[in-house]
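@channel anyone free to eyeball this complex?
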Amino acid sequence: MSELSVAPAQDQDPPPKAPIWEVRGIFKVFPGVQALDDVSMTVFAGEVHALLGENGSGKSTLAKCIAGVHQPEQGEILYKGEIQKFRHPMDARSAGVATIYQEFSLVPSLTVAENIYLGRYPRTPAGTIDWKIVRQGTQQVLAQLALEIDPDVPVGTLSVAEQQLVEIAKAISLESSLLIMDEPTAALGLLETQHLMGLIRRLTTQDKAIIYISHRLDEVFKIADRVTILKDGKWVRTAPISKLKMGDVVRSMIGFDIEQHYPKQDNTRPETCLRVENMSTESGVHDVSFTLHVGEVFGLGGMLGSGRSEIARAIYGLDRLTSGIVTFDGQKTGFRSPKEAVAAGVGMLPENRKTDGCFFNFEGPKNITISRLKDVLQGPFLSLSKEHKYGLAYLQRMNIPHTALDRSVQYLSGGNQQKVIVARWLFSKARLLIMDEPTQGIDIGAKLEVYNVINELTAAGISIILISSDFPELLAMSDRVAVVRDGRILEITSGAQLSEYQLIGMASGVGKSEDGERTSAED
Amino acid sequence: MERVSKFFRSTVAGPLVALLVVVGLVTLATDRFFMMANLSNVSLQVAPVAIVAIGATLVILTGGIDLSPGSTVALVCCTLAILVKKMGLPLPVGIFLVLLLGVACGAVNGFLSTYGRIPSFIVTLATMSIFRGLAFLITGGTPIFSVSDALEPIFYGKFLGIPLPFYYVVVFYALASLFLRNTIQGRAIYAVGGNESAARLTGLAVNRSKMVAFLIAGLTAGIAGVLTTAWLNSGSPNYGAELGLQSIAAAVIGGASLVGGYGSMVATLIGALTVAVVQNGLNLLTVPASWQEITLGIVIIAAVGLDMWKGTFGRSLARIFRQS
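replying in thread with the prediction:
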């Protein structure tokens, strides 16, 4: 699969002129985390500079510092050699920084045109908004992107991919010298991605500088001129992409070999835990079949929007099945609600533990016992002393700080919050655990703890469905991996037999056969 | 010492201090506050608000709001008056039926705001109008006086020299607190208000929990309606107009968060007492009604404001001390 490391379009080294944008010695601390530790980088006009690193390596934080969202504790941001002070995103914007965030900044109830000109509506001499210019400008920028989107429809009615493109159009319509793109293709299909690549090329010929953040290394190798790699908030290296191979990049990002990083145990037993046969849902799962063994970690690998989360949701009773059979523990199920799933012995670690997992109004013990309150009953009433005792036992077992005993879990670190939710399902004696992005946004040490927890769970006979965008992690920690695209399982293989590049290739649909198509898109 | 510091970190500390300040101010302004006759008066005044505030707190804990209990009270008063005086039903039967009516009103609110997916603010804004409109409809707009001689002892009766409404409040709050702290359903109400999505994913019955909160809110409005009828021995469609907002005020002064998930029965009782003491104090000082309403509004803002700003104050103080 070395074909993925296509040579960049411009082979020469970046021009020897002075950088248009520069950051020097940036430090940024979040409670409990050194997010950026003396990071510097330069960006030249007309350059695509890729910013790479694992989740939590600090690349989004660096982008947000440049965009004025975060204020670094130390360090300087320079435009044409002059120090800039950004106290607010508006400061950065007026200095010429346009940003496309992973999270959308669009107002769903406003139209495409209204969103693109939000906060800077042109005025007529009478002081009212000049809708003619708004419409013309919008049509112009949409045409530039080769997008067939009606400027007058509310953004909320568009698909996620279209919204992402509107987000990009909005950033491009700003007069800017630097464009920061944070995972711009995460929600895009192949065709839209190709549009975007072509557009980026055009922007660089207009001498705009672009900082490009992406997990998709194949894209980076296609579009970037130079690469800066961060790891754990520290600068690792900066190099022209022509001097790098994909293997170098991965090694710099992870820092050591995957085998050492992931303490994987094989605890698979021959008995079947879950059998899914020809499952389809309205939410876009098509004819999915697989068998999960007791103590096995079954990985669902795919891009965002591939349907991997929808498969998990269907099993957990969140989405209704339109056809197919799900058998759990020998019982035909097809859970109609999470309530039924939980009662049968299934648990879920949701992707977003803040909005879907933790109860911040509860202390640790209450967060744990909530999955099976009847075990805390003494007669008809909850015994708070019994709850306290259980809480303490599970905090100890999961190695969670005891401050969580009588304080809200909002004061715990992300990793410890995750462990509280794992403890919740241990308490409910779940035999199948669905983990959706269990290590997202937590630091390396906490990740390692999560991996050890996975081993501990599977050793105890708990089966796990693992969803992760961190492909090395997914491959290393899963006994088997299903490659998911467009709501279908393309292939199921053992995690060890699949390489990250193969997984990316299959999951994104950029196989060998499509090489020709890809090169043509670059022209 | 540890106990003391734990108390001051607890959520009840702020509201309790606010109550003590209000009591202190009233005592300074008039020497009649701590007289037995006045205290027993306070316990009569506080009863309807306090009991309605039980339901208000439960609904607020789930993240909803109930604007309608005042109108439910009016509807219950008028219905009880009609059932007993005009239709000649025995009083206990009438009371039983209007309590059911209260629960039914709660059921309408609960059903529309959960299964009907209309925000509870809108639903109860509408039923606030509907229930009072019904009260006017069934009475033709005229109050019904002298409903039953058997009614008055329910409100004015005494046990061991203490008015009965005092016992009602104590008993209902004890029951509500036990329900909220020590039952699975009570815990689910906190969970749903704290994080509805997490509650659903943890397998809790979200809609049922909200429904239960509204049903109890209907029941407590019904009880307050019976008490009000007994208090005045009459039923009028104008009764209870202030109860809806005062019950929310009680919960909020007690520290309940309108976002849901935070609050407790003890705290709400403290809030209800604060409301009652403010009113009582102003009555003793013969302050006109207009100023009573204005003062109550200021007390609400001050109590909640102190709670919201204490973190900011604390941080600023800490910063000043660090720098010096």
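from a first look: Chain B touches chain A at residues 178, 181-184, 187-188, 190-191, 193-195, 197-205, 261-262 (CB under 8 Å).
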